[in-house]
Design goal:
298 residues, alpha+beta, five-stranded antiparallel sheet, two-stranded antiparallel ribbon, extended, disordered N terminus
Length: 298
């Protein structure tokens, strides 16, 4: 394995491990000799030990790969900690105290978020029924007015040299039920791009972009209408089955995932407030919390 391949293979790992090591050694450590560890590098009174690197090496790494990765991690650690030494020498004590407070506040936020996530994963009901979605939609219709036109449509893109394309186009435009299998067999065999799921609503602007020309929205507002465009290499077809215009209400299915997310967000906020209240009441009852407001503290 070449050196370049080794470095490429472990670049992402080096970065992750390096950040971890840098954070771990932000504060000065006891001399390595007292711990009996093998010293890889020192910067001032900051020390990097082999045991710190060893715990981060992939299990299957051996030989030259291991040497390269240890050297890479060590040099990154040295450069970072040299900068930290210089920074602490040139930043005032007051600024350092502010940094300590920011770090502690961030640590608290991480702990609270982790605990909140753990509790909600345990207690939050994440099942949202179709009835709930429909009810939410009916009660909050103004929130869901369409910002763009949407359509249900077929879309096909073919190379201009596709065989018997004219014959296929005629059958497609006539759209006789007996020709449906032939229509789709041709699509699956010769199309470069296609969209055939007419149960799914799509943004009209996305469809227009696929058609390769600047078409007016009104050209798409006719049901069962076939639209054809072409350029020097390709031919594009669209057939519109249904449409909804901007500022009208969409079908519930179009905003179903959005509504589910909103319901779960409200449910999450309510459940978290409920859990916090319960924790507070339990802590008062078992004496873990005492409130001395308005009383002298002995």
């Amino acid at each position: 394995m070449s050196i370049n391949n080794n470095i490429f293979r472990y670049t992402c790992f080096c970065f992750t491990a390096f950040v971890t090591i840098s954070c771990k050694y932000f504060q000065p450590k006891q001399p390595a000799e007292k711990k009996g560890g093998k010293v890889l590098a020192k910067v001032g009174n900051r020390v990097l030990l082999m045991e710190d690197i060893q715990s981060m090496l992939p299990e299957n790494i051996t030989g030259q790969d291991s040497v390269l990765l240890v050297e890479e991690l060590t040099m990154n650690w040295v450069k970072e900690n040299l900068l930290l030494e210089k920074a602490q020498m040139n930043i005032s004590e007051e600024e350092l105290k502010q940094f300590d407070k920011l770090i502690e506040d961030y640590r608290k936020s991480l702990l609270l978020h982790a605990y909140e996530t753990k509790l909600l994963n345990q207690y939050l009901d994440t099942l949202v029924t179709d009835e709930e979605i429909k009810k939410y939609f009916e009660e909050n219709q103004k929130e869901f007015e369409l910002k763009e036109n949407i359509v249900k449509a077929y879309f096909f893109q073919f190379n201009k040299e596709a065989p018997k394309l004219d014959e296929w186009e005629k059958k497609f435009r006539e759209a006789k039920e007996k020709d449906e299998n032939q229509i789709f067999q041709y699509v699956y065999q010769f199309s470069i791009k296609s969209h055939v799921d007419t149960s799914v609503w799509i943004l009209l602007n996305d469809l227009k972009q696929l058609m390769g020309q600047d078409l007016s929205d009104e050209q798409f507002f006719r049901k069962n209408h076939v639209i054809k465009t072409q350029d020097s290499s390709f031919v594009y077809f669209a057939k519109i089955f249904d449409y909804k215009v901007k500022e009208s209400l969409p079908p519930v299915d179009f905003v179903k995932d959005q509504i589910k997310t909103m319901i779960l967000m409200k449910r999450r906020l309510h459940k978290w407030q409920e859990l916090k209240t319960q924790m507070y009441e339990d802590a008062i009852k078992n004496g873990m919390v005492k409130i001395y407001t308005g009383k002298s503290i002995e």
